[in-house]
Structure formats: structure tokens, C-alpha cells
Amino acid sequence: MNPATDPAVNPATDPVVSRAAAPAPHRAPNPLLDRHRAVLPDWLALYYADPLELSHGEGRHVWDTAGNKYLDFFGGILTTMTAHALPEVTKAVGEQAARLIHSSTLYLNRPMVELAERIAALSGIPDARVFFTSSGTEANDTALLLATAHRGSNQVLAMRNSYHGRSFSTVGITGNRAWSPTGLSPLQTLYVHGGVRTRGPYARLTDAEFTAACVADLEDLIGQGRTPAALIAEPVQGVGGFTSPPDGLYAAFREVLDRHGVLWISDEVQTGWGRTGDHFWGWQAHDRNGPPDIVTFAKGIANGMSVGGVIARAELMNTIDANSISTFGGSPITMAAGLANLSHLLEHDLQGNARRVGGLLIERLRAVAAGVPAVREVRGRGLMIGIEIVRPGGDEPDPAATTAVLEAARAGGLLIGKGGGHHTSVLRIAPPLSLTVAEAEEGAAILGRALRAL
After folding, report:
1. Which of 62, 268, 363, 418 is most buried (most C-beta within 10 Å)?
2. What are the C-alpha distances in Å from 256 to residues 156, 217, 260, 312?
3. For residue range 296-321, what is the model confidence (pLDDT) as tens digits?
4. Eight-state DSSP code of residue 422
5. Sheet with strand 375-381: strands edge to edge
6. How far is CA 360 from CA 241, 279, 383, 429, in A?
7. Tell me: the pLDDT tens digits for 182-195?
């Protein structure tokens, strides 16, 4: 694919990608960038007109190879969950690496069993079983395999504006054109309303009316064909721009799903482990009718080590009737990191910190954005916050302005992300969960200056 010609990577809608894939005018020489372009795919996105190389990090800060220090409000795409260079994690990784780095699931693995026990107990799913993978994409692949095998159906329900990974099966259920490069899929996917509260045909309804309309849409979809195997949904859509439905929507969906025998998969790759502040899992904002049938996770659990996984009750997890292993999922070194990181998260109540400091940060960002006509909405919960950028005077997304704020924030010493459906016009803010009040104030001030520069 060529970002200049492929519609999935459109320079008109994603200036960050287009600038990374073509030489930036008048930039300083960057030999590493030249080498990157020579051997890596054109579609491998880079942030910034002059991409930066990070050298090290500590706490909520990172440094680039030129010696510049940045406050990190993106954490490697929500993956550095607790802190950069967290001593407990680096110690656990070093000690395990000195003993044994790899063995595969063909052998008993104490760290894997211990982490699975802790996650199962925290999951809220009765009689839970845990399968570890090396990424969120692979976790969602596994969840789809379990659901379709258990239900004997290859039809899947997904949410509009969703993102579930980059594999062949997960791009086929991703409801976001910018991240789905092919329409081919082993699954038949139907897309449901509800993931985006403030746009679309139901945006002007009250929360109760919105939920009722989305439930009616779900009923209609299920009635049109074969019974689907599952509904997969992010409680807060990550790549889609940190959008979410009213609390309780998926509980209302659950009543319909249960009536038709359709499973509920909650994709917690970005919302898990307390990031939303109010809840440990995103699905708990929709728990009136019990936990999901399947939960997928990844990203922050090992603070940067490659860990993903699936949680399901034994009946579902044991559906697979063929041999299977995981070469890298559950490796001793990544499990050691996960155990140390999860222990730190729980012992220091980082979920509570996400609620307290995240609430303050949202207030500050709403205050600085109030006088910026280009800001349509500041939304989110906990330390998962989105700022939607539009052309002043309307609702038209403005990807170029979003990129300008991203660049200005970097110039001010702050790293953030972006997303927002196929328009890519939402600033994504997701610092490590140990963020301090002073750092939240500092980041809000930098973002305020970047926004006012528009």
C-alpha cells in the first residue's frame, strides 16, 4: 500500500501518516528515518512531520535522542500503564531473564499460572479460564474463534466506529474504514449503532431514548439473518476517539443477546485495569445483567511487555476440540512483568488515582477548551480522554488542525495521540495511571497553549 494512493491511508484525512510517509519539507537530516523508510512498509504510520526517536523514560516522562524531555500523555498507545521504568517490573524482568526467558505452553509455567489465577479472580466471570496471547489482536482473534466454534455461526455483530486489531479476522470486524484495508473476511459482520453518543442519527436523543433506539436496531439486525455467534464491543472505543455509549447500554443489549443465544465479548484492550477510574473493567458500567461471556485484554497489563489474553467461563474456553499451543503467549518473562505490574497497580490503588487525577484533568481540559471554537467536545472518563477538533462554526472534523495541535503539544514538551474514526480528528490523552496532580496541571497548560494556537 502507498499512503499517497491507498484510501485506507488518505493524506486528506490523516496528515500525520502522510507526512511520515513522504519527506517533510526543510527537515533536518534524519538518517534513522531514511533507514526506516528503506526497509519498513510505507503503511507503518509514524507520528510527527519530523518523527522522534525515544531513548529512555522514567515515571511519566520520556526523553528523545536529542536530549529533549517530554511529559508522556499517551504511554505507547495506553501500554505503559503504571510508569516508565517501574522498578518492580524491571527487577522482575531481569530476575526472570537470568533464569529462563522462554519455554512455550508445552511445559508447566509457574508465572503463567499465578497471573492467570489473579486475572481470573479479578475478572468477575464465574469459573473463569484464561488464555494468554502476545497481543490484543491475537486475543480478539481467539475470542472470535471461541465464539464462532461454540455457537456454530460465522456471523458476528460489531459496533460502528470500532477497532479490534490488524489481523485478517479483526480488520473484518473493525467498523472504522481507516483501519480496515480489506473487505474480505472469514466472518459475516453486521454493525450496530451505539458506540458513538454525540454523532449519528440518534445523537439528539436523550440517553434513555438513545439506548432504546440502539436496542431496537440490534433487534432488527438479529432478525435479518442467521443467529450471530457474538457481539464484540469496546466499552470505550479507543482508536475511534474515546467515544462511549450511555452507561447501561450493553446491559440492555445483553437482554436481547441472551434471548437469542448470542454471546457478548467485551474488548478491554484499552479500557481494562482501572483506566476509566470508576471501574476496573469498562464493562462494569454495563453490569446490570452480569459480566460478559468473554473478555479480551492486552496493552497495559505488563507495562510494555507483549501480553494479551482472553478470559471466558470454562464451558466456552474449552470449546476448542483440536490441539493448540501458544509459542509466545504466556512466556515466563512477560508473565513475570505482568505479575509485578498488576501487584503495583493494586497495591497503589492506581484505579483510584485515575478517577481522582483523571477527573481533575478533564475539568482543566474543558476549561482551557471552552474558549477554543475548534473544540467540539472534551469527553472521557478516568485517564482516557478525547478532545474532538472541528472546523469552527460547525461539526465538520478537522484532521489538519488536529495534527497541528499534536505538533504544537510536542513542541511544548507533551506527547499525546490521535484517532477518531475515519476522520482522525480527536486528540487522545491517556497518561500512565500514576499521573500526579502537578503533571496533570502541567499537561493541561501545554495543551491549552497548543489549542489556543489554532
Report:
1. 268
2. 15, 11, 7, 20
3. 999 999 999 999 999 999 999 999 99
4. G
5. 375-381, 384-389, 426-429, 417-419
6. 20, 17, 10, 13
7. 888 999 999 999 99
